[in-house]
């Protein structure tokens, strides 16, 4: 609110009237044309035309009545608040994902137990084992991604440990699609850099041009909150911008094909993978020469 002493309309220079009594017939006395230059300057800056000391009315009575119907009185103290209301951005409608206060980051061996719990969202025969998590998060953690939630706490409370809500776990393979071999846990992987079975590499192949996603899982209580969508979009963007692979491949059941197709994956037909009993479809996202 502005200081009243700064309002020129409330403090105008004039003759000293101290000691003078008001005239009883002041309302009947004619007013002369004001000669005060300061008053004229103020009225001119305000866009008010004066005639014989009175402001001229630019409109007729009918127009004035129409304006009055839509006129809303504004208290002077509130006038300065209006620019804020006009310039503030549109209100963001919070989603269920916003309520998680999510953030994504790479996973490590410290997140193994978290991943085991998230993986329980799958049927038992389709879950990644603890040993596979240890292998993949030790050999190629840069190909993983987790979405975490961290509750809002008071300043005087200790910082809690973030909760893993969903994850993506992957390895590299030289083939164009996910295979049973790429999903295997190599024997003696901690001491051997490469493992071959029947002339075929198994497990993670360093330098392979395909990122083979073996798990995209979300905790059951947080499904339906766009956690999976956020994860896969972030993952694709990271791999594309890093330019470290030619494609991303995954296997999925029929009901999830539209979900992956919405992110650019293409169906390559039934997969040869028999993991978890089979019945999978190969899906591939090609980056092309220009990523």
TrEMBL record:
GO molecular function: aralkylamine N-acetyltransferase activity
PROSITE patterns (UniProt xref): GNAT
N-acetyltransferase domain: residues covered: 102-290
Region listing for Disordered, in residue ranges: 1-68
Entry superkingdom: Eukaryota
Keywords: Acyltransferase, Transferase
InterPro entries attached to this UniProt entry: Acyl_CoA_acyltransferase, GNAT_dom, SNAT-like
Gene Ontology CC, one term: cytoplasm
Gene3D superfamilies in the record: 3.40.630.30
Residue stretches of biased makeup (Acidic residues): 57-68
Official protein name in the record: N-acetyltransferase domain-containing protein
Species, as recorded: Penicillium cinerascens
């Amino acid at each position: 609110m502005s200081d009243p002493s700064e309002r020129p309309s409330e403090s105008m220079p004039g003759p000293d009237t101290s000691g003078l009594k008001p005239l009883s017939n002041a309302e009947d006395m004619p007013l002369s044309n004001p000669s005060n230059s300061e008053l004229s300057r103020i009225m001119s800056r305000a866009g008010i035309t004066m005639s014989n000391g009175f402001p001229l009315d630019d409109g007729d009575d009918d127009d004035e009545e129409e304006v009055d119907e839509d006129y809303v009185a504004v208290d002077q103290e509130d006038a300065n608040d209006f620019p804020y209301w006009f310039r503030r951005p549109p209100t963001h409608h919070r989603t269920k994902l916003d309520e998680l206060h999510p953030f994504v980051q790479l996973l490590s061996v410290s997140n193994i137990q978290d991943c085991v719990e998230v993986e329980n969202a799958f049927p038992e025969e389709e879950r990644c084992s603890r040993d596979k998590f240890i292998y993949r998060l030790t050999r190629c953690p840069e190909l993983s991604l987790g979405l975490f939630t961290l509750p809002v706490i008071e300043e005087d409370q200790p910082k809690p440990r973030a909760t893993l809500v969903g994850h993506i776990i992957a390895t590299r393979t030289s083939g164009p699609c996910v295979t049973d071999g790429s999903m295997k846990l190599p024997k003696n992987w901690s001491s051997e850099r490469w493992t071959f079975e029947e002339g075929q590499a198994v497990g993670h192949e360093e330098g392979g041009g395909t990122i083979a996603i073996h798990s995209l899982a979300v905790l059951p209580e947080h499904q339906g909150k766009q956690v999976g969508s956020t994860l896969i979009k972030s993952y694709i963007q990271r791999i594309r911008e890093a330019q470290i692979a030619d494609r991303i491949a995954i296997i999925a059941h029929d009901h999830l094909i539209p979900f992956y197709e919405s992110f650019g994956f293409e169906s390559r037909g039934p997969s040869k993978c028999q993991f978890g009993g089979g019945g999978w479809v190969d899906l591939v996202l090609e980056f092309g020469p220009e990523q």
